[in-house]
Amino acid sequence: MHRYLIIFSLLILGAFSAEAQHYDRGYEAVPSSPFVEKGTWVFGGSARYSQHINDDFNLAVINGISSEGFNLSVNPKLVYMVKDNMGVGLKVSYDRGMLDLSSADLSISDISMSARDCYQINHKFSAHALYRAYIPLAGSKRIAMFADLMLGGSFKQGKAFYPGKDYIIGTYEEKYALELAVDPGIIAFLTERLAVELNVGMFGVSYGWTDQIHNQVQNGSSDSTSAGFMVNLLSLGVGLSYYFL
């Protein structure tokens, strides 16, 4: 019995000793030198443009696709470092897209559908206040992780036309959204001032509503709320940033 009491006492003492011991995981709580110094300005962003032209193209169960369109996205940002490795700033975005569908036929078993002379165009403006924090990797001055906390909103306009039985049918809509998002990523300096960034959406909360006018006669509206905590590979982005004092 005494032997078991001694063993039990040693285990408790060992647990307290392990808890009091400091483990060095390789990251300093306060790095000896900051990754980005206070007073630094960061200007950067990303841009993307794509265009397509289809002439009697077949895709899976959709045949005879004849269409053309484009997508444009510009996303500049400006950040000021209020403390070492911590900055605040503004990110704005402009997106525009167009699709002109001349013809397309869908055929699945006994079901067949077709679309002719459909046209859609839209653009969106968005602005977000931004807070950024850098986490240097093992004291590195070239590579670090970062996280962007963004709060803002967006405004989108769009219109679509397609032929009805006796006349052209058109819809005009306006979309508004309020958004809170967290985008972590990694940054690597290519030169002393120029860096490349890779970020991915992880957490977001948004509330949006839509006002719609159909044929300049009927009005409609809708609203939606969404929240998610997951790695969204569809929001993977690559951009360049320039750092200057």
Give the tags.
elongated, mainly beta, 8 strands, single chain, 245 residues, 1 helix
How would you describe what is shown here?
With 245 residues, the protein is mostly beta strands. It is built from one helix and eight strands, in the order H-E-E-E-E-E-E-E-E. The model is unreliable at 4-8 and 15-31 (pLDDT under 50).
Mean pLDDT: 86
- What shape does the CA trace take? elongated
Q: Whole-number radius of gyration?
A: 27 Å
Structural class: mainly beta
Low-confidence stretches: 4-8, 15-31
Q: Alpha-carbon distance between the termini?
A: 71 Å
Beta-strand percentage?
Answer: over 45%
Give the tally of β-strands. 8
The helix tally amounts to: 1
In spatial order, strands of the major sheet run 1-2-3-4-5-6-7-8
In short:
By secondary structure, this protein is mainly beta.
